[in-house]
Amino acid sequence: YSAQNALKALVDAFVRDEPACLKARDELLGVLDGLSEADIRRPQKAEIARIRGECLGAFPETAKQGEDLLAKAVKLAPKNIHAWNGLGELQFARGDLEAAQTCFEKAVVGEATDCVALRRLSMVLRRLPASKPEDKTANFALALEKAKAALKCNMKDPYSWSVLGNAYFAEGMVNTASAASHKQRATQAYQQAETLFQQAAIVDADLHFNRGTLRAFWAEYGLALEDFNAVVAATGMQLPQIAAITSRIEKTRGAMDCFGKVKPKKASEALAGIPDGELVQ
Description:
The chain contains 14 helices and no strands. It is mainly α.
């Protein structure tokens, strides 16, 4: 129980600042180190390995140790869905997509309604390499189904709504016949996610970044800038997308001004100087 409380303190500390994270990590490891080996039974050993693994896996310098501990946890307790999810997270983070997919599928087998595993499966499927276009299309379609299944687990989970928005956006990219309708569904999913995040007083940078990408793709540049600026405010990151969109708007505005000031031939020459991808469609 004390270890679980310490793990929650570590998670909460991530919302605040790095010194708080390091302090919470050290406190958690201290709690675990203080447990008597003789009093620990096999199920508890698996849970302790999981908690320690998630703790160490949260920091780049100890991520490998964390992954090894989580691998130990799933061997000790093959039905521990939290351990499978934790192991899959670390494998996903270092780019081992097939191993991560296996972990999340193991978690779903253990608990068919685990929304975390289903969300992660949706993300992995959209990143899997595909040698044939039809394989990529199939992966994206399955990713959308996993995102829908994750949402059914809990309709009030903003993360599931956000992942559903991503899945619709991605599916529309490979299934161009449905691009417009999928864009509308993605927008609705993002809006629902934002509403739920606001109710929880959370600013989710991933949501704003992904929705900003959708809006930029559909040439909704003003709205895209709102989302990208929200990411900067939440994380302090500098996004190249902001400068790119601002430049695009200025070039387009300058080209449009030409129409009222010069002859049609000169206006056409001005527009020709702007790459096709930078023109508002």
